[in-house]
Amino acid sequence: MYNEDRSFRASKSATDHQPQPKPQQFPKLHPPKWLLPVWDDVTEKYVIRDVSADEITQKLYRISNCSKFIVKNVGYKYSRVEKPEYPEFLNSGWTKVVHKFINADGKVVALKSFNSAGNDVMICYQKSKNNTKRYHQNSFFNNMVFSAKPSDDNGNSSNNINNNINNNTDTQFDGDDEDDDDETSHENVEMMMRCMKTVKWKLYKEAYIMHIMDHHSVAKLEDLCITNFNNFTSAPSSSPPSSSSSALIYSTKLGEEVTLIKLLQLSWEDRLKICYGVTKLLNYFHQSNNAFRRTILINDFRREQFVIVNNDVIISDLDDFTFEGQTCLKDEDCFVRGHNFSIACHEGTCLNWADTKNILDAGSHFINILLLPGSPTRMKQLASEIVQKFQNPVNASSPQLLSMMENLVKVYSGGLYLTRNVSNDGDVHLSKTNRNAGRYRVKPGYDLPGHHDYQCSFTRNMIGCTLTVHDVIEAEEMCEAEKDCVAFVLSPLRSWTDRRYVHLKNNITKETLKKVSGGYLTYFKNHIHI
């Protein structure tokens, strides 16, 4: 028995002194390259070429200004406030976490940072574990392309990302199971770090695009802070991630979330403004109308990528932009998924692929849903023709659609859809067609503030019946069409189409009439005695 024990101890001792296997050394993680515009100082123009993530980071670092917010291990705080104020969590997606934040200039902005618990990181990590052989050949990470984000997924992972603000730079990762050996644990850490690095590169690309884009419907970079710059351009080390890892934090204007319910609750004129703005954005993306001379494709064109700022829709999620076209061998290779639409293949390229796909996606998420419902009866034909082009853009382009949309806005703002007499010189004579002439009396300089309001269809607010009109004749026609309307107040305020606001009322009394300044006019039917 003693000999057996001694033999066992000797065997164990020999094992203890055996050299431990060295952790797997992964090949170097090369920064990806993207086809992006870069300013050329010689020609003073943008040139489209392959740009590495390191070059983009160098350009961003030159404009980085961390004085707008202080970054610490515990989170962020407003630099002008003694007591730390932490950002308010708004949303999280596959790649980013968004918080509401007040910067050093006092602006309320949307603060965007890397989501270490997002689906992009987790999917990358699972794929790398399932493709270990591919991973060691250094092909998976250097050629990884993330799949499109489904519209029914908000991007949240099962991890508690509410605490992500305190771990913005990276997340601690301790390996898989407790019984994993040292080599496996090291490989897991290395794979997670590489995934974090790969996903972060997407944020660098988005921040760069925001910096160079010049359009009012594209989110602009408000603030930018890069910490530990050297860690951006170097491959990840073999040690676990820590709070000293590199971080990219940037902000844009804070906007409201775009939802279908919110859009459908808007008046038709406000929905027309959104459709007009989206069409102008598509026109900017067209190669003939931007400084890059290349059509820009939004791979993930959805309502969720936009926010509403000052009643305008602005695209704020730009990490899925590309300046590349679609290659093909036959027409079937140019089939647009989800739209049952195919584009012609010509000399190895899908003709107008980017522009056509942008049009189809914009139609599905905005134009087809918003433009027709509630449109004035005499304008439905024009609106219907535009919707048909967005649904089937054969021989259509963004500049052509913008021209059609501009004509629709012109007809609406100029009252050209109204049934009026037009002289030979093209002037509209309103007084000759007023069927309600003599049915209304007017009290100049009077208003009915807060009195006799009622709800009506297509109102612009939830308190009363507020609409816009081209002139007083149209206001009288609207009042005649409403069974509850006996009076209306014509406001001097005008909408974005230069139409006047009108408030329909279901009653009027001498006591509720108030003398006001500023050009208000109160009209009421003749049978009302005040």
In short:
InterPro entries: Kinase-like_dom_sf (IPR011009), PKDCC (IPR042983). By secondary structure, the protein is of the alpha+beta class. The chain contains 11 helices and 27 strands.
Shape: elongated
Number of helices: 11
Strand adjacency order, main sheet: 5-6-7-9-8
> What class, by secondary structure content?
alpha+beta
State the end-to-end distance: 119 Å
The oligomeric status of these chains comes to single chain
Average pLDDT confidence is 78
Q: pLDDT under 50 segments (min length 5)?
A: 1-15, 71-84, 133-180, 233-244, 422-432
Describe what you observe in this structure:
This protein is an alpha+beta fold and 530 residues long. The protein has three domains: 33-254, no CATH class; 260-413, Transferase(Phosphotransferase) domain 1 (Transferase(Phosphotransferase), domain 1); 436-525, Hepatocyte Growth Factor (3-Layer(bba) Sandwich), CATH 3.50.4. The chain has eleven helices and 27 strands. It has helices spanning 2-16, 53-63, 119-130, 132-136, 182-212, 260-264, 268-285, 353-370, 380-391, 398-413, 472-481, and strands spanning 33-40, 45-52, 70-72, 75-77, 88-92, 96-102, 108-114, 223-227, 247-253, 256-257, 297-298, 306-309, 312-315, 321-322, 335-336, 341-342, 345-346, 349-350, 421-422, 428-429, 440-444, 446-447, 465-469, 487-494, 500-505, 514-515, 521-525. The strands form ten sheets. It has a five-stranded antiparallel β-sheet, covered by helices on one side. β1 and β2 form a beta hairpin. α2 (53-63) crosses α5 (182-212), α7 (268-285) runs antiparallel to α10 and α8 runs antiparallel to α9 (380-391). The longest helix is centred in the middle third of the chain and has 31 residues, at 182-212. The N and C termini lie far apart (119 Å). The model is unreliable at 1-15, 71-84, 133-180, 233-244 and 422-432 (pLDDT under 50).
